[in-house]
Amino acid sequence: MLYPLVFQPIFKGRIWGGRELERLYAKALPADTPIGEAWEISDRPGDASVIANGPLAGKDLRWLMENHAAEILGDAKPAAAGRFPLLCKILDAREKLSLQVHPPASKAAELKGEPKTEMWFIADAAPDASLYVGLKRGVTRAEFEQKIADGSVADCFHRIPVRVGDTMFLPSGRVHAIGDGLVIFEIQQNSDTTYRVFDWNRVGLDGQPRELHVAQSLASIDFDDFEPKLVESPFISDGPIQRRSLVDDPLFKVETWKLNAGSGSRLKPKKLQIVAVLSGQIEIKNDSFSVIVSAGQFCLIPASLVQARVLARSGAALLCVEAN
Fold it and tell me: Which of 231, 132, 129, 230 lies closest to 182, judged by CA?
């Protein structure tokens, strides 16, 4: 019954967003709103992704998890309350995001939040774009708290210049912010808990300062996390594909693939996988069904599909995600 599934994106207005998802990926954005996030695969309360292709079009991911969880997941573990384990987004940051942190698993329940480990892949970048990730070497908690009080806490953050193709891994507890001029593919745990430390003294879409969560942030930040680096793994040739390992974590694995037009590869059998197209166009097919997936789209391959294959219809670059 199941087949490679694509979904309708859920667009989120953000004060720091823009219109780049329309320019880069021809997404039909709502008018007159800065769009900061496209939730491409989501099983959040009130935000369940709706299937856009095939006989199940109109059903949503919540329905799939309630009725076909074993076929979807295989041996992957669901999130809390039996939800889909991952949340996949594309972010458009025209302005800096808040300096923030997500609670580690050891603190999340105490703080009444959810842990959130994630990764960022830089899909588009202005010439001077940067991330803010981790602390500058030697910054102490006492210094950090003092700079929160005097409004200069941004000075504590490690700034990393980035360009297209760079990747950053962000375990829960790693303090961070996305700089302006970036479009990012984000793969994360199914969580939406964010504690803001500092928001550049700006106001939200309602004209009011956005809420900060200083106490929760201080309880969550890893104060021994100094100057983390971008992922540094090389590309490796695998027949017609160039593969690069980006993340190998107990929660999920991510590779990036480069394919020439006409080349292809089988996907792993009996594994929950997601393929996100960074550039170009591909076809994902099994014995009875195929779907065309273009740049800026994500495709969920249920674990029950044992013959799924990717074929590049043009030169293409992909993220290939495996849920654990």
Answer: 129
Owner of token pair 């803001």: 196
Q: Which CATH superfamily is domain 7-220 in?
A: Jelly Rolls (2.60.120.10)
* Length of the chain as a residue count: 324
Q: What is the side-by-side strand order in the sheet with 281-285?
A: 264-266, 309-312, 281-285, 290-294
Enumerate the CATH 2.60.120.10 domain ranges in the chain, comma separated. Answer: 7-220, 236-323
Cβ–Cβ < 8 Å for 63, 5: no
Question: Measuring CA to CA, which residue among 139, 160, 137 is closest to residue 148?
Answer: 139
Q: Measured between alpha carbons, how far is 212 from 194 in angstroms, rounded to an integer?
A: 10
Question: CB neighbours (10 Å) of residue 59?
Answer: 16
Q: What are the helix (H) ranges across the chain?
A: 20-25, 61-73, 105-108, 141-150, 214-220
CB atoms within 10 A of CB 136: 13
**Nearest Cα to 118, choosing from 168, 57, 56, 43?**
168
Residue with tokens 């900061």: 36
Phi, psi of 129 (to 5 degrees): -70, 150
Query: Model confidence over 130-164: pLDDT tens digits?
Result: 999 999 999 999 999 999 988 889 999 999 999 99
Amino acid making up residue 241? I
Q: In this structure, are residues 53 and 241 in contact, taking their beta carbons and an 8 Å threshold?
A: no
Query: In CATH, what number does 236-323 get?
Result: 2.60.120.10
**What are φ and ψ of residue 11, in 5° steps?**
-90, 140
pLDDT tens-place string over residues 155-199: 999 999 999 999 999 999 999 999 999 999 999 999 988 999 998
- The residue type of 111 is L
Active site residues per annotation: 196
Look at the pTM and tell me if it is higher than 0.90: yes
